[in-house]
Queue: 4 jobs
Job 1
Amino acid sequence: MTYAEIYRSGREALEAAGIGEAELDARLLLEAVCHTSRNDLLVHGDREITEEQEKQYQGWIALRASHIPLQHITGVQEFMGLEFLVNEDVLIPRQDTEILVEEVLRELTDGSSILDLCTGSGCILLSLLRFSNDCVGVGSDISEKALTIARKNADRLGLHAKFLCGDLFERVEGKYDFIVSNPPYIASGEIDGLMEEVRLHEPLSALDGHEDGLFFYRRIIKECGDYLKRGGSLYLEIGWDQGNAVKAMMEGAGFHEVRVTKDYAELDRVVSGVWF
Ligand code: GLN
């Protein structure tokens, strides 16, 4: 079979299975199997793929057709131009979260200390370390399994970070210039309405923000004063409808310069503030 033929069969199989982004996923899976680029498919669509590649591709298409997330099949997700290992123990890094990283990078000076709560795959902390110099990074997560992935990601990127297993600040010591977090923020009642890929394959503990979704913001904002240096900043990713609530919480806790930043879809995405 040629690239073009097998791609078409993959796309049709995913469409038939009701996969939203059938075209894109069929192409990305083909590229992952054949180690090729989008260009190869366009320009060299008449090239034959090997039998082995064909078998692997059909297998991966079948997995994707059963709503297994694409990233669990390929094992990786790109974030901030870096490749992160992922599996069912971590939240798959989302493009929206790049806004948080970019906002922090605006203010981050070399040599700063950074604490990332609910670090998961480590994508936020490791990106910040990768795009700065001499910063000290600590990532905390309640899941040891998640930290196994975060440590692997640090190794693969050649970065040094310390990872602590605990409930938010439980194992954290010292004070930081930056505390960042993308905590679980989906209200428990909304979990059932999520797409199957997320609901059944991503860790519930990385999604569930309890009754109103704000559980972790309350705790982080209440406790973080003990862990922030004077003039240090807190950056939180939030859901599109949580901006005002989280901003009010931070102002109430005494943060200064509290700001809500929007994402590229013009939705509230990050709340930040400075601690004195
Ligand atoms: N910090 C990780 C991320 O943004 C994990 C977040 C989480 O598990 N809620 O992808």
Note: The beta strands are 76-79, 82-85, 113-117, 136-141, 162-165, 176-181, 228-237, 256-262, 268-275.
Job 2
Amino acid sequence: MPFTIAIDGPAGAGKSSVSRRVAQTVGVTYIDTGAMYRALALKAKRMHLGVEDHESLIPLVSELKIKFSPLSETYQQSLFLDEEDVTEAIRTPEISQFTSALSVIPDVRYGVVALQRELARNDPRGALLEGRDIGTVVFPDAGLKIFLTASPEERARRRVEQFRRLGLAADYQEVLQDQIIRDARDSSRKDSPLKAAADAVVLDTDGFALDEVVDKIVKLADERRSPIA
Ligand code: DC
């Protein structure tokens, strides 16, 4: 099995920026599992399906045709859904809420997890998967597991910055409230709730520069990949 890194944690903990840099530095493929759930949500939304439409949602998962581009030098990645570039369309607040609601459904998770495993196992370079349940459910035998956290206020502040960089209007209080709702749902769902694996390295990123967090994880990855005999 190729070397696998699991990076989990709540929204806004810095997972995405950290994961992309770590994947690029270590030389493994980056798999944004949240984007996979988002692509499914976008497809369902466009078909006017709701969370209650289980019968129609389940086949959508097995038909999901998604493709990630490799990371660019500036750590950007595009996501294609049925050949269409949906990189930005999956990031709206509406899709974020719908994704969170859809990802509670066990059959949806089952299908998306199977897709994640297939992507990672078929990649000889090894993979870094970023998500919520990678270290606990998707790859419980990952070579390195990281759980990234940060205070709710710091996480909301980072999200606002992210939205603004995308040219989207964002209100701090609204983002914070939205995040509290999503956190509660992601942590309390019966199937694969958000929690650190017992053997994960838990890193609180408050007050740490991005590079410091990245360096720490890259060092851990190097140690785990080539353990000293
Ligand atoms: O990381 P993100 O914000 O793009 O994730 C979008 C939603 O998908 C989030 O509400 C939680 C869910 N998700 C999940 O349940 N399991 C994952 N491995 C990744 C994301």
Note: Residues 11, 33-35, 37-38, 99-100, 103, 131-133, 182, 186 surround 2'-deoxycytidine-5'-monophosphate (CB under 6 Å).
Job 3
Amino acid sequence: MKIILFQSQSLKLSSKDLAFLKSFKLEFDNDFVKLIKDDKFLLTGMYAKKVALKVLSGGKRLRPILLYLAASMTGYNNRKKIKRLGFVIELIHIASLMHDDVMDNADMRRGKKTVSYENGNSIAILTGDYLYSLAYRIALEFEKPIPEIVSIAASHLAEGQMEETRLSGNFFLSFSDYIRIIYNKTAVMFECAIKIGSILGNNASDLRNLSRFGRYLGYSFQITDDILDYIGSSAMLGKPVLSDLAEGKATMPLIAARTCSEPQERSNMKRLWDKKEDIQKIESWVIKNNGIALAKSVCLSYIKKADSLLEDIKDCYEKELLIKIANRSIFREK
Ligand code: FPP
Ligand code: MG
């Protein structure tokens, strides 16, 4: 069956999909909590466990789901091992968010006060360090090349964050710099989750296309995140909106608006940007100059590219769900 058929079918999640996603998350979350509770290497005891447990809840578990679907699609069925590798990816993801919250001075994440806000930066940094080290300990249970792939992905994450920090404040950030940053800070982990899932399945012919699928989905996911920072609701997102503008981060909507705007207005906006003033005015200018619509069309083009990479992969339930999840990720509200 050609991918086009999937696209013309409803991308609505069926009751079977919803039941699968619900039970996956329930099982994953239960064992995730147990992993921390039972870890004998958390030397400072109850306090550290309490902090670590606080940050585990609330995520969508998207990366572990992608890993699971890629493994199943390529014929691997050991649920226990798939789950442990899902822990690796999710631990790195959560730890990087904790560190990101320290760097952004953020108060809220996933609808709760951040650890850096409630317990201070040192505790947030150290809890994140603990979660990273636990992730690598679990990754080492797996054969080559999985631990190395995970470690390289984490290096990219640091690189992406570094580049974003270095280039922040630049109103004229180029599209290629932006894409490189979001590849490193976001798409790499999507690519990594799907890649290591496919490696478990040991299906070399699908590995390349699936990994690239992960990369394009990651681009689209981050651009959607950046769009939601403009037009989302902080209640739905569980974090403040317009934080990118407040932090001086030029993202896809602004980059797109720049290309459509009048030169005079653009220089006025640059002046406001440099003075870190009136971010609402910059927001209105981005919207008026089609920044959101254009950013959405960039997302859509990445998702189309991602879909086309699955054309030659054998049809199965997991492939269908993967396509639905990717396409729906653009329309999410949180
Ligand atoms: C959130 O993005 C942050 C990230 C996706 C990556 C953060 C990465 C690090 C802190 C480096 C990690 C280093 C290693 C070695 C693993 P965002 O700020 O755009 O989103 P937000 O609005 O949710 O904060
Ligand atoms: Mg942030």
Note: Residues 204-231 form the longest helix (28 residues).
Job 4
Amino acid sequence: MEYSTIIVQREGRIGIITLNRPEALNALNSQMVKELISALDSLNQDESVRCVIVTGSERAFSAGADIKEMVNMNSVQMAMTEHFFPLWDKVGRYPKPIVAAVSGFVLGGGLELAMSCDIIVASETAVFGQPEIDIGVMPGGGGTQRLTRAIGKYKAMEMILTGKRINAEEAYKFGLVNAVVPKELFIEEAKKIATKIAEKSPVAVKLAKAAVNKALEVGLTQGLDFERELFYLLFSSEDKQEGMKAFIEKRKPDFRGR
Ligand code: HXC
């Protein structure tokens, strides 16, 4: 697929998707959603890619869903086109880890996209918000659920009901982002984390990600049962043999994803 709203690159074992609608502060429109889904599919199918980074520009990760595209849509059109939902499903259930590298505006659907990823690295200039209330709607891409799980009811409620934005330092303090770095370094920092993940066993990474996500869905006993099954399963992988042998032989493991 030819991309007009995103740029897709591969650097070693990392796939990098850059949102690229600078004229609209990377507002997410239907075309971008289609392209993101296609890019994520192709990076998932590419066995050489072990971790994905989703990023934007220094000025804006994304200012949210494209308001100009939505202004004349009614609820039936929203429902029938499932405006954006295939994207949230795709990112939320993506088998490989995704690191969001964000800077500048991270608003509305942009914040929802970042929160659907697994790790969030922020530049010191990042501002986070769910401003949908200011345009007469509410978050619809998981914001009420994911933000509340990430920072708790009261802070989420204030952000969602008043449209209040928080800066990177506050986001870090609230547990919304993994790291805050100078603006020149946010992509580099994301690459460092992605590279570390990409060196691990892809099988173990995939199952560990699934297990952590399960913790947000089920009770403790069910979650522990799920973890145990996946843990047993990993003992059938070649990567487990390789990892344990490499430790004993005092060498670096060469994980193949088998
Ligand atoms: C369409 C947008 C946009 C958006 C910015 N632009 N955000 N276009 N949809 N969400 C466009 C502007 O219209 C403008 O284009 C250009 O980008 C630059 O924006 P400015 O407003 O001139 O920049 P600035 O003054 O720096 O203000 C930046 C901003 C502001 C604070 C981010 O643009 C803003 O408030 N944007 C809307 C944020 C928002 O409400 N997001 C939530 C959307 S709803 P022109 O052509 O005019 O120069 C949502 C729901 C998701 O995300 C639900 C999913 C199912």
Note: Residues 24-25, 27, 63-68, 83-84, 105, 107-109, 131-132, 135, 140-141 surround hexanoyl-coenzyme A (CB under 6 Å).
